[in-house]
Design brief:
This protein folds into three domains: 161 residues, Up-down Bundle (Substrate Binding Domain Of Dnak, Chain:A, Domain 2), CATH 1.20.1270; 150 residues, Rossmann fold; 204 residues, Rossmann fold, CATH 3.40.50. The chain is 49% helix and 10% strand. The protein is built from 27 helices and 16 strands. Helix 15 links the parallel strand 7 and strand 8. Helix 11 packs across helix 13 and helix 19 packs parallel to helix 26. The N and C termini lie far apart (54 Å).
């Protein structure tokens, strides 16, 4: 049965576009998903194996058929081995992103790239001191070159540990050492995990599951953390700013060009080039009032955080944007890009241009981005988009009016200033808020969209339930975009959705109840925030002590698997919407959702109902508060019937609340 547009997305703009796509007989991902039913049950359970040419093999979960592969691998081994491969792939995706940022910083420091400069000098000097690189008498370019060379060595390091491991609390590091998963070189760890999954490699499920953790930690404390730190150094540290999100940011009288993907070097150059006199003159000549640059997915988050460029949507919006008929060009690099965009582009007038040497797409135009002439390359791409404005069919233009204001640009460092002020920057107000019972805890809600769920519903329902129980939310990636489209990234959202304690804190410091920390690679900011909470004191000496948790309500990518393993492996309880593909092995499922806690201080939980998942998190936060002997919460949870309405206090209560 074909699902309705309301069953496909809770976003009004998406629902409008889904109706238009149906009227014009254009397929989107939901249509292809429904045509794919029923999906392979063996694959969903994780019990099919094609790791050698004797297979593919599948194990019968009901016990009537084969119970092991041709080589003798059990269901436990097959499931764990498949999961280890996916964790390694996800770690590779984020870490290769980090490597590219390092190369770009290095070429910029050496004067070999066009249009880039070292904008995060304060962070550069701070990182150089952390890594023991002398900063006396060094120019920013000289220092950036040394830091980039040191960072590049982290990928191929053959001995020792990753430098950022030293940031982790001592108890976390001791657990890693005991479990044999302390991350060394990024490439070394990923290759080692993949090697263990080759036919005749590791055939002990528990060892393979610990390899999942090792691959994830190489991402979270290696490639991703390097990507975030060096992006801030090269492109500038984000600061809180106001922008907008959803398809309504597109403009009918402008040339609309979208950037989609994950690597910020190209998108940052496009922002600069979009203001060049040559591009603006070309827009005027084409009959447009200007050029509207907007983003999809994590590239959107990168240029939002640093430049305030509006967001057209998250992962599943990539097709919806083309159905508006108003997009002259979509510029893509790598990760989360639908090859099917070419089919919609044929019906509308959109040019889809790939730019990465790592990702070519059949039916896309390929214009390889050259960082040595970045501004010239970016300008050429934009001019090709402007030229396409003449091919727009006004009869096919349908831009939804929906868009919401948002505040983004938060980082581990900027939260210091917002909580403690410029002259006394500190995490103490956050820790005190938790200790006093105004805040129940802090939860990172991250991840993608998936056609298996109603778009954004998992993110929004979970976040709203957590907010009314006085939980501060930190977000990245498509989850942050979902909440941005729904108005949850504005300070005013505290009055509409937050419990009394969280609202008091948000009102006092002027923060939204959901803090946008960047793209999915910037989940490392959540790790560094946990470091600062531990360092501030009063809430334990270990991530596993803290009243914190993670969640990925609509996860989709192998990157989410890697993220899950580095978060849980660091000691943070994490809930996913769909279960990881492990249900074909009761042993693997039991380890991930129970036994892992003994080894790493945290575990996974699988729960597709976002409200029930929120309550698993709330129960977890309360258990951590009880273990820390913290005071009970100051206020009862906000009544469900008041969610979405301004919080009304009785006069006496209002005076008492200040």
């Amino acid at each position: 049965m074909v699902s309705s547009k309301k069953e496909r997305s809770v976003d009004p703009a998406a629902q409008e576009i889904l109706g238009i796509a149906a009227q014009e007989s254009q397929q989107v991902a939901y249509d292809r998903y429904e045509a794919m039913q029923p999906q392979c049950g063996y694959g969903q359970l994780g019990i099919c194996c094609h790791n050698c040419n004797m297979g593919p093999c599948r194990v019968d979960p009901f016990g009537d058929g084969p119970q092991e592969g041709i080589c003798g691998a059990s269901a436990d081994v097959i499931v764990a081995r498949n999961l280890a491969r996916r964790s390694a792939v996800g770690s590779a995706a984020h870490s290769d992103h980090g490597r590219d940022i390092v190369h770009l910083l290095l070429s910029t420091a050496r004067g070999e790239s066009q249009g880039y400069s070292i904008k995060g000098v304060v962070k550069l000097r701070k990182l150089a001191r952390e890594w023991g690189i002398g900063i006396e008498d060094a120019t920013s370019a000289q220092l950036a070159e040394k830091v980039a060379e040191a960072a590049l060595a982290e990928f191929g390091k053959q001995e020792g540990e990753l430098r950022f491991v030293e940031r982790a609390p001592q108890k976390v590091r001791e657990r890693w050492e005991q479990m044999g998963v302390t991350p060394g070189g990024v490439d070394r760890d990923i290759v080692g995990v993949l090697h263990s999954t080759n036919m005749g490699g590791s055939n002990e499920a528990l060892h393979l599951l610990r390899n999942c953790v090792r691959a994830g930690l190489a991402d979270g404390w290696g490639g991703s953390m390097i990507a975030t730190e060096l992006s801030d150094i090269l492109l500038g540290e984000p600061q809180p700013l106001v922008s907008e999100a959803n398809l309504g940011v597109l403009k009918e009288d402008h040339v609309n060009i979208l950037v989609h993907g994950h690597e910020p070097g190209l998108s940052d150059a496009l922002v600069t080039a979009s203001q060049s006199p040559k591009v603006l003159a070309a827009c005027e000549k084409a009959g447009a009032k200007g050029l509207q640059l907007a983003g999809i997915c994590c590239t959107a988050n990168e240029i939002l955080m640093r430049h305030g460029v509006p967001i057209a949507g998250n992962f599943l919006h990539q097709e919806f944007a083309l159905v508006t008929g108003a997009v002259e060009m979509m510029v893509v690099d790598i990760q989360c890009i639908f090859p099917a965009l070419k089919d919609l582009a044929r019906h509308y007038h959109t040019k889809v241009v790939s730019t990465s040497p790592k990702a070519h797409f059949e039916g896309f135009q390929h214009i390889e981005f050259d960082e040595s002439r970045a501004l010239d390359s970016a300008e050429e791409i934009l001019l090709a988009g402007v030229e396409n404005f003449a091919n727009r069919d006004p009869e096919k233009v349908h831009i939804p009016s929906d868009k919401s204001p948002l505040v983004a640009g938060f980082t581990t460092e900027s939260i210091f200033d917002h909580l403690g002020g410029r002259y006394r920057p500190s995490y103490r107000p956050l820790n005190n808020g938790i200790m006093e019972g105004r805040l129940r805890g802090v939860v990172g809600v991250v991840g993608c969209n998936t056609v298996k769920q109603c778009q954004d519903e998992g993110h929004l329902e979970m976040v709203k339930e957590l907010l009314r129980h006085d939980v501060l939310i930190v977000q990245t990636g498509c989850s942050a975009i979902a909440c941005g489209k729904a108005g949850l990234l504005m300070p005013e959202a505290a009055d509409l959705y937050a419990g009394r304690g969280l609202k008091e804190i948000c009102d006092a410091v002027g923060l939204p109840p959901c803090l946008h920390l960047g793209s999915c690679v910037d989940n490392s900011r959540i790790l560094t925030a946990c470091i600062e909470i531990c360092r501030e004191g009063g809430l334990g000496e270990d991530f596993a002590d803290l009243p914190v948790a993670g969640a990925a309500p609509e996860w989709m990518s192998d990157k989410a698997i890697a993220i899950g393993f580095y978060v849980v492996g660091s000691g943070v309880f994490t809930v996913t919407g769909d279960p990881l593909p492990v249900l074909g092995s009761p042993m693997v499922k039991e380890y991930l959702t129970d036994g892992m806690e003994k080894d790493f201080g945290a575990k996974f939980a699988f729960e597709s109902d976002p409200v029930k998942a929120a309550h698993l998190i709330i129960d977890h936060l309360d258990s951590k508060r009880e273990a820390l002997h913290l005071d009970s919460m100051m206020y009862e949870p906000r009544p469900v019937e008041t969610v979405g309405q301004p919080l009304q206090l009785e006069a006496a209560e209002a005076v008492a609340a200040g």
